[in-house]
Design goal:
By secondary structure, this protein is of the alpha+beta class. The protein is built from 5 helices and 20 strands.
């Protein structure tokens, strides 16, 4: 009589044991990571409050196991000493558990932007997100994206320039020389796609109730001074240290008008107003300037804009070279003052 040898089933259990050990180790890492995130968040909030920030929120929660760390911050209210800030029904910050060097922050229910003495504006849209990566580097990579945003100024607030847009994108990253970030500079790229101006405002006038698209890029010099948000604002210390924008290039489309822009450098004066020159190669600029002259905005010098429109009308449909100058707190086209110069702080 012979018996069939019995094979051990121990080998069948080995993969499950290994998987269980790995799962337990990964779960331990996830809990350690989320505890570190919460501890560092508390420490950062405490430090900012000591620097004069006003920060409040309801009880936060951390979820996302196994592959993400997701921090939900309801009823967030964050205001810098400068008076600029945001409030949101909820902010959600998320990172990959296996690569916590990149974070994405979204405002799923929109937010309210406080503009110091200009008042508040509500921002809604199909997507409002901020992503930050390379946090261990001197300058992180920063990306702000708004998908089909709308802007509504609160009662008694200063009007916001645009009412809506198809997309707004801002990218900020270290300036690279031979593939390395070795200078105190950052590259900035801004895209405003198919924006519509508020009724009666300068954007609506310049586009003749059409749409505005702007694609602009440049380099920020003395970028390390863009830190802190004191009562004067983030650009004040940067300006005082000699900070400026260089290598500025881009394209503008306002209704039927088109322009390529170029500037060697722009900075801010002691009052925070932009100063410098921007060269434009423009097509049909008269239509945009004439529309600006007809806007109902009190910020626009309609008489000056009308004069500039008449001066550029002689070019007809031909391309024309123009120079926009920011000086003495005003925006000039030749001898014509169009509006106040943009204010950085």
């Amino acid at each position: 009589m012979t018996t069939t040898p019995r094979h051990s089933r121990r080998g069948l259990l080995v993969p499950f044991v290994i998987a269980g050990v790995l799962l337990a180790a990964w779960t331990g890492w996830w809990f350690y990571l989320t505890q570190q995130i919460e501890t560092r968040l508390d420490a950062q909030v405490a430090a900012m409050r000591q620097d004069g920030w006003r920060i409040s929120y309801a009880s936060r929660t951390t979820t996302g196991w196994p592959f993400r760390a997701r921090v939900s911050i309801p009823h967030a209210d964050i205001t810098a000493p400068s008076g600029h800030g945001i409030t949101a029904p909820e902010l959600v910050a998320e990172t990959n558990a296996y690569n916590p060097d990149r974070w994405v922050v979204i405002a799923p229910d929109g937010l309210t932007l406080s503009r110091a003495d200009k008042g508040k504006v509500g921002i809604a849209g199909d997507g409002l997100r901020l992503s930050v990566s390379h946090l261990r580097e001197r300058f992180p990579d920063l990306r702000v994206e708004m998908i089909r945003p709308t802007f509504t100024a609160h009662q008694d607030a200063e009007p916001f320039p645009i009412a809506s847009a198809e997309r707004i994108l801002l990218n900020v990253r270290p300036h690279l020389t031979d593939g390395r970030a070795v200078t105190d500079e950052m590259d900035v790229a801004f895209n405003l796609i198919d924006a519509r101006g508020r009724p009666g405002g300068p954007v609506e006038g310049a586009t003749r109730q059409g749409r505005l698209t702007a694609r602009i890029e440049g380099t920020v010099v003395n970028a390390s001074k863009l830190s802190g948000m004191d009562s004067a604002g983030v650009f004040a210390a940067w300006t005082a240290s000699g900070g400026r924008f260089t290598a500025i290039k881009g394209e503008l489309e306002a209704g039927d008008s088109r322009a390529r822009i170029d500037s060697a450098g722009l900075s801010a004066d002691a009052d925070g107003r932009l100063q410098g020159e921007v060269a434009l190669r423009a097509e049909q600029p008269g239509a945009a300037i004439a529309g600006l002259a007809r806007s109902q905005s009190g910020a626009v010098n309609r008489l000056g804009a009308a004069g500039a429109a008449a001066a550029t009308a002689v070019s007809g449909d031909r391309g024309v070279d123009l120079v926009i100058r920011f000086r003495d707190g005003r925006t000039w086209l030749g001898p014509f003052a169009l509006a106040p110069a943009p204010k950085l702080f």
